[in-house]
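Field log, afternoon session.

UNIT: design team B
ACTIVITY: writing a sequence onto a fixed backbone
BACKBONE:
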């Protein structure tokens, strides 16, 4: 597994946090250029410029997606993941996914996130499967949501709960 590198995104993320009133202590990065079963989501400490934790993150199962290649869309009903900056909004619980966080898209590439019900939530499936394969098979675990392991979601919850400002999630795909 390759090491996690975020240097090229760090300056932009910190500037976005500073200019738009987000937490300057923590952010979440999702590198969609990495395989879904590898450590694709990272919790970043912006004060020490260190990775606090990483884990798997499934991509949406929309038309044209494969386990190896995500397709991105902001279109309602696409069931695809979106790229860009997101504000991690309110925490809630549901019978289907349990703990979840709503997301507000901040860019043209993800401005429909709230209407599309794009969330951060966990799935035991994602938590178990990433130990078995580099590419998570597509399932109902994600219709465009950032679906991670229960352990990573608990860590995201902890930083969101202690932060006085909203946390930024930035999803990108390098070439």
């Amino acid at each position: 597994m390759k090491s996690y590198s975020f240097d090229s995104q760090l300056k932009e993320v910190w500037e976005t946090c500073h200019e738009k009133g987000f937490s300057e202590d923590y952010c979440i990065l999702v590198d969609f250029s990495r395989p879904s079963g590898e450590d694709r989501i990272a919790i970043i400490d912006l004060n020490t410029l260190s990775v606090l934790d990483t884990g798997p993150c499934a991509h949406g199962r929309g038309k044209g997606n494969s386990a190896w290649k995500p397709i991105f869309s902001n279109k309602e009903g696409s069931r695809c993941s979106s790229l860009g900056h997101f504000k991690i909004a309110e925490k809630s619980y549901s019978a289907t996914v349990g703990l979840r966080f709503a997301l507000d898209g901040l860019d043209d590439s993800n401005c429909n996130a709230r209407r599309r019900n794009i969330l951060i939530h966990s799935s035991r499936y994602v938590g178990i499967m990433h130990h078995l394969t580099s590419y998570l098979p597509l399932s109902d675990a994600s219709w465009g949501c950032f679906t991670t392991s229960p352990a990573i979601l608990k860590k995201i919850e902890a930083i969101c709960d202690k932060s006085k400002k909203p946390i930024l999630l930035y999803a990108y795909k390098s070439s």
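LOG NOTE: The mean pLDDT is 87.
NEXT ACTIVITY: expression trials, pending approval
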